[in-house]
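Moderator note: this is an archived Q&A kept for reference. The question asked for a predicted structure of one protein chain; the sequence and the answer are reproduced below.
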Amino acid sequence: MLVLWAVFAFGLLLQSAAPHLRIAHNSFVIPSELTARGAINPAAIIARDRIVQSLSAILTFSGALGLALCHIRRQRRALRATQFAGNPSR
């Protein structure tokens, strides 16, 4: 369960640390920090941003889904335990 929390937290951390490209007039706006270094490759910058966003979404979703499934399983176990404790004939 700790691993699922770590995956979920890493997905959120990746999302918050990623550079976010703005979109204006149906095109990406590349920050001046990236253009100040000299020659830039806009396709590489956009591809990297898409990969980071996709990876963040996959990690966050899979961590949340795993936590939800663990929680459901734990709740079912607790419900069965209370049902069996209340019915001594089983």
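Archived answer notes: The chain has three helices and two strands.
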